[in-house]
Amino acid sequence: MFKKISPEKLNKNAIHLLSKDWMLITAGELENFNNMTASWGGFGYLWNKPVAYIFVRPPRYTYEFIEKNDFFTISFFEETFRDMLNLAGTKSGREIDKMQGLGLTPIKSTNNSIYYKEASIVLECRKLYFSDIDSNHFIDENIIKNYPKHDFHRMYIAEITETLIK
Question: Average pLDDT, stretch 149-158?
């Protein structure tokens, strides 16, 4: 079903994937995990490794799972899954059983993280670094309007350890 490729062979526009298609970030183990939809992040090459970087606000339930686990996944889906991504981005796993509502089939990776049978692209990532956004570091002060509650993101930089495509 999935084919393993090197991250360099992923032939997709990263800006389009993130800003238009959105990603589903998942952390935890099969017995206890959570996910969230996100569109802020990126991909690149840092510290001699292919990396992904994601941004998660501390109040998000998924934040707790990312903090507790060394690995997380980033999954991308076809457009037919847009409603599912909307639900995953607006409802908290603290309030509802997301897996029942999303209709996804979780799969355990070789590193015990979770991805989904229905995804079209999966990046498994191992955390390398984090940094909290500091409002004192904004050069363009207009950006702060993205934080009316001053709930600044934590940025994670993670090595892409596995890339799966359909």
Answer: 96
Confidence of residue 119 (pLDDT cuts 50, 70, 90): very high
The answer on pLDDT for 32 being more than 90 is yes
Is the pLDDT score of 51 beyond 90?
Answer: yes
Q: How far apart are CA 115 and CA 113, in angstroms?
A: 7
CA 73 – CA 93 distance, rounded (Å): 17
E strands of 64-153, at which residues?
Answer: 71-76, 106-108, 114-116, 121-132
Give the CATH class of 3-165.
mainly beta
60 exposed, middle or buried (CB, 10 Å; 0-12, 13-18, 19+)? Answer: buried
| Listed residue (100, 80, 102) closest to 89, CA to CA | 102
Distance CA 23, CA 107 (A): 17
CB 116 within 8 A of CB 123: no
- The answer, yes or no, to whether residue 92 has pLDDT greater than 90, is no
Which one-letter amino acid corresponds to residue 117?
K
* CA gap 162, 93 in Å, rounded: 26
